[in-house]
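The data are quoted verbatim for completeness:
=====
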Amino acid sequence: MNADPWDLTEAQRRQIREAHAEARRTPMPDADKVTAELAAIRDRFAVEAVLALHSEFRIYDECGHEHSQEEVDAGTAVNCDGADFVTCRDGYAYSVCRACCTDGWSQTEECASHHDHDCWPCPTYRAITTMCIDGKDGE
């Protein structure tokens, strides 16, 4: 090794020149294309976030008999945390939008009694998915 880091051998100089020449031959990405790709990725994450918020929330009726945790784990029974009961999967009654029609745990009274919209899929979910299906999501 040389004592002075700038005192390069001819082989080292040649290696640096070759690396520099290779770097000049490698095309740089088009800034507009990269910006568009990043915007499409950002938009896709935004769409996924909106769809996660406006997702299906299933409402079940009580079945009237007891269920074990094993049935819940097997998927034959459903733990309705908001309603504080476990019921048969066959007790499915209808679906609502998680963001528009629930408080996070159960359907709101406003939605259950006094709403003036389709609960599921909600207008937001329909608009986003229609936009994506029609190919207007940046692809």
